[in-house]
């Protein structure tokens, strides 16, 4: 590793990346907190006279400030010529997609500085087209600031499993105007009478979204951020498979991959599942070492680049297995057990793989 580099960052001391720097003996500084001074001026002063500078910033916080704040002394685009800009953040894959779709001016500005992007997913067509000046480092399980891997979930909740199904499938999703394909999927299910054979929780997010978890867990959990990730085990006990609406189903033809708790919940609860996600979502899962259900379901939806056609195949699957989902559950036992154990392996080996990715990165920069 190069020892004369200067690393300046806004990550927290508790971030896994900080832990990597500490253990490796790499010198790095934190960006000072100076509310009354434009951030670009703070950075310019800190890197003055230094060579081989790497600036590691949080996209949605620090980088947004650098984009929006104005200074009479410094311009960040000009300053970026004196350093290597690195973007690093939990849920960065998702945020870059949203930035490109909602703030194209900011996306163009980011791209102009040709940053290195440490992703917690895999850059697909949409990101490569909108950020063609970026160098993507794809690491599917970059840790979040709590040290857990992307796609975090709670496999220990599987100890509550006591499978006594009363419905075919489970569908848990927030209703959002900026996620129109979720509503299209739900409408198609209603038109076919499929919601009658399901446990569905599909409504806008509000202060009562997670109230039903109160039947399953103590109040301290329901009032904490854990409520967003913890599997509602009662509903898994009452159903035979899950239909997942993943986060990044926004754009036709996009194969950007970002693994969230939406997909890992059925894995942790040993459930068969289908996913309305981006193009090749299931293929990317297999590349991670998971097994999918193509011997039991028509997974040709994963090869369909048009989202509405993908929805049609998924709904056809739901119609086909209506009333016989228990057979699907029993026939997929080996796959479900493999996926559960593989998830545990990925979580357990996460830090080692994360450090190896960083070692390879710094060796080449």
Distance between the termini: 9 Å
Q: What does the largest sheet look like?
A: 6 strands, parallel
- Unreliable spans are none
CATH class wording of the largest domain? Alpha Beta
CATH topology of the largest domain: Rossmann fold
Q: Tally the helices: what do you get?
A: 16
Number of separate strands: 10
Order of helices and strands: EHEHEHHEHHEHEEHEHHEHEHHHHH
Q: How would you describe the oligomerization state of the chains in this entry?
A: single chain
Overall 3D geometry?
Answer: elongated
Mean pLDDT: 90
What percentage of amino acids are in beta strands? Answer: 5-15%
Which structural class is indicated by helix and strand composition?
alpha/beta
| Whole-number count of domains | 2
- What is the helix fraction of residues, given as a range? 40-55%
CA radius of gyration: 22 Å
CATH architecture tag of the largest domain: 3-Layer(aba) Sandwich
* Sheet with the most strands: spatial strand order: 2-1-3-4-5-6
């Amino acid at each position: 590793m190069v020892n004369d580099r200067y690393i300046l960052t806004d990550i927290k001391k508790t971030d896994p990346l900080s832990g990597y720097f500490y253990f490796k003996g790499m010198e790095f500084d934190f960006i000072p907190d100076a509310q009354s001074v434009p951030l670009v001026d703070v950075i310019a002063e800190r890197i003055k006279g230094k060579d081989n500078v790497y600036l590691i910033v949080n996209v949605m916080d620090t980088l947004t400030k650098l984009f929006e704040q104005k200074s009479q002394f410094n311009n960040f685009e000009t300053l970026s010529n004196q350093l290597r800009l690195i973007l690093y953040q939990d849920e960065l894959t998702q945020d870059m997609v949203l930035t490109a779709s909602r703030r194209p001016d900011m996306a163009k500005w980011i791209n102009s500085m040709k940053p290195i992007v440490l992703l917690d997913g895999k850059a697909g067509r949409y990101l490569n087209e909108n950020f063609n000046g970026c160098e993507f480092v794809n690491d599917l399980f970059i840790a979040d600031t709590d040290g857990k891997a992307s796609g975090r979930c709670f496999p220990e909740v599987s100890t509550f499993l006591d499978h006594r199904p009363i419905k075919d499938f489970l569908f848990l999703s927030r209703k959002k105007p900026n996620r129109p394909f979720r509503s299209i999927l739900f409408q198609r299910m209603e038109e076919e009478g499929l919601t009658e054979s399901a446990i569905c929780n599909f409504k806008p997010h509000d202060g009562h979204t997670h109230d039903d978890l109160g039947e399953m867990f103590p109040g301290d959990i329901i009032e904490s951020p854990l409520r967003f990730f913890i599997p509602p085990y009662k509903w898994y006990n009452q159903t035979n498979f899950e239909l997942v609406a993943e986060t990044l189903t926004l754009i036709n033809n996009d194969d950007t991959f970002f693994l969230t708790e939406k997909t890992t919940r059925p894995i942790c609860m040993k459930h068969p599942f289908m996913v309305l996600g981006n193009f090749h979502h299931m293929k990317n899962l297999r590349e991670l070492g998971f097994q999918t259900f193509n011997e039991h379901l028509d997974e040709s939806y994963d090869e369909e680049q048009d989202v509405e056609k993908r929805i049609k195949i998924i709904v056809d699957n739901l119609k086909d297995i209506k009333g016989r989902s228990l057979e699907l559950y029993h026939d997929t036992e080996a796959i479900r057990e493999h996926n559960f154990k593989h998830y545990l392996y990925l979580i357990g080996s996460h830090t080692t793989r994360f450090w190896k990715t960083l070692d390879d990165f710094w060796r080449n920069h």
